[in-house]
Amino acid sequence: MCLAVPMKLVEKTGEFTGKVDSGGIKRDVSLMMLPHAQVGDYVIIHAGFGIEVLDPEEARIRLDLFRELAEATAHLEEI
Amino acid sequence: MTDTDQIRTAQTLARQIRELCDSADRTLRFMEVCGTHTMAIAEAGLKSLLPANLELVSGPGCPVCVTEKIFIDHALAIGTEHDACLVTFGDLVRVPGSSGSLATCRSEGGRVRVVYSPLDAIDIALSEAPRPTVFLGVGFETTIPTVAGTLKTALARGIENLFVLCAFKTIHPPLKILAAKKDLDGFLLPGHVSAVVGLQCYSYLPADFGKCGVVAGFEPLDILLGLRELARMAVSNSPGIGNEYARVVRGPGNPAARELMGEVFDAADASWRGLGRIPGSGLRLRAAYSRFDAATHLPVEVPAAEDDPRCLCAAILTGSKTPDKCGLFGRQCTPDDPVGPCMVSSEGTCAAYYKYGDQRRSSNG
Predict the structure, then answer these.
(1) Host domain of residue B159
(2) What distances in angstroms separate CA B272 from CA B49, B61, B269, one per listed residue?
């Protein structure tokens, strides 16, 4: 039930409201919990509300780590 | 990342977890607290990658599963006796009450509306006015601020026929009870609840109970990273609080969300299926928002509800039993005709077992 997905904030429509883009479809979300969200941010959406802003730097670090871990196993398949 | 990269990463992480567990002189037992984790673990078949001496049990973090039967009875009674429109998240619709569910109520002509966001309840209340519109308030700290935000909006807009039937639950009180259990070494902590509550608030796990806790995201690789960190802490006997979901979860959590929650709700005792009554583990509306309280303003008599004594949901929710130990599982209790909430909820442990099988048994003999 605590499912939440990242979507890109494409427009701020009011003090606490915005539009996010989800695969080309725009939907309205509440930004009551994210007063500092900026257009261009990826926001984590749960039940029509943004609950947090995704940190792109942390996301990049994580991806780099996964790639590194993938390398560690890649050589085993060639044996 | 390509699929091949993901598989390779998973294999590396699984190997590292195995190596850590090899150095343990006992079985490590971790609990995934959150129902969304339970489903993600089952869907990806992660248990088949884990070593025999790492056990992963499900916890009480599926809001539908821990909601008592009497809540459904209460909601249905309000719907009938006050001619109210019941507004709910989809997860609750098929949960059986003492006689019927929200789904059967709807099929018999009752007004039941399923929403994606609690904000939708405002539009429904406007279209149903003056008929009372009751939002069924179930959920943890991820969901609670969204309901708080909805009520704040409704108050500002002067919506008079909107109510909430509160059965919200908060994570820390039950987690403290579970942390005291000797057979659990650590907790895979929920990702999105933690986005709201933060990390520091879990410090009692290592400090008071010597248990480790790691917040993880919901991708299979996120979960494996979380388990690797839990295994590392447990094996090295250095319990702490880890964060493997740093792209979303920060130390202080989301203060604006907690402020919203605190403005509208106050702590109260709550009853949990499986855990019983836990002081301070629920919420009630504060005085300024008491006009939205369905229990007060739409009074009904609700007789005590008995759970089917054969149903093991209570033991399953505390990690004491697995679904295959339940005599009803897969026979009298299936997703199409569920007896207990762990089978009804799409995130319930029994539903996950039914859909994806007992992956440990097939892999570890």
Answers:
(1) 65-170+254-297
(2) 32, 11, 10
